[in-house]
Amino acid sequence: MNLFTHVLHILGSGAVAFVSARSLRDPLTRPNTLAGLQLAESGSVPFLEALSARAAAEGDTWLAEKLAKHASDENRHGQIFAHALKQLNKQVIDFKSLAQAQEGKPKEAKPDDRRRSPFFEAYFEGYSQETFKPQNIDWTVFMASTYILELDASRDFVRMAHALPDDPVSVNIRKGMLSVAQDETGHAAYLREALERRLSPAAVTAVIDEWRTRKVNAMLAMVSNLLQKGGKMPELARDGVPIEMTAEPDAASTPVAA
Ligand SMILES: [Fe+2]
Ligand SMILES: [Fe+2]
């Protein structure tokens, strides 16, 4: 990573922390922020479970166990955010029923449009959907790309938790978020260890560097996309009594944990 990228990383992290903390502090944008987190966390579970099965089939029991634990943690994180939404009397939009309801009506925004992420498009630039299927993905690519995301997520969740106000419901949500943050630190740690088990120290540094640079570029892509839309975020939460979540983001298009 060169100095320019490093400076951008620091600026970018600060900007993302500011935006996410603000969107969580504001009661109007809080449900949408929590819904986005729920979708991201739950969406990674099938992918991680499939990877765990592949690692077991390849004889790497250590990795298989870590991935199984990772999958169950992310599942729990999804539930924590679903519960937080429930406390606010909100739930994640059911994209499947939304698609059915829109049959025959003019299409302004397809549910899929809400899921397409300029961030992930830039982060995984040069890789096809096919190479990201759990049966195909290169282990080093998975480990290094996810390591960066988990590491940053652990810090972002702490910042976001402390941005919440002090009413009883928010205090509860904060507790949940801090426990999520702790798990993300653990995920980053095992992924780094997994890289160290397979690569030389110099190769580990090089690959982490590469994915840090990709993350910086992806954040720039995300910010410029947001500016083009005039700062408008997609709607992910709606009013109502929460039902069981049926909307699962395509595991192949969001192959990583938040
Ligand atoms: Fe998570
Ligand atoms: Fe995680």
Question: First CA to last CA: what distance?
Answer: 23 Å
Main sheet attributes: strand count, strand direction, barrel closure: 2 strands, antiparallel
Q: Within the CATH hierarchy, at the fold level, what is the topology?
A: Heme Oxygenase, Chain A
Overall spatial form: globular
Count of distinct strands? 2
- Helical segment count: 10
Order of adjacent strands in the largest pleated sheet: 1-2
* SSE order: HHHHEHHHHHHE
Task: Give the topology, please.
Layout: H1 3-25, H2 30-43, H3 45-57, H4 61-87, E1 90-92, H5 95-101, H6 111-115, H7 118-123, H8 139-163, H9 168-198, H10 201-228, E2 237-239
Antiparallel strand pairs: 1-2
Helix pairs in contact: 1-2, 1-8, 1-10, 2-4, 3-4, 4-9, 8-9, 8-10
This protein binds fe (ii) ion (2 copies).
Describe this structure in words.
The chain is mainly α. It has a single domain, classed as Heme Oxygenase, Chain A (Up-down Bundle), CATH 1.20.910. It has ten helices and two strands, in the order ααααβααααααβ. It has helices at 3-25, 30-43, 45-57, 61-87, 95-101, 111-115, 118-123, 139-163, 168-198, 201-228; strands at 90-92, 237-239. A two-stranded antiparallel sheet has the order 1-2. Helix 8 packs antiparallel against helix 9 (168-198) and helix 8 (139-163) crosses helix 10. The longest helix has 31 residues, at 168-198. The chain binds fe (ii) ion (2 copies). The site of one fe (ii) ion has 6 residues, from helix 9.
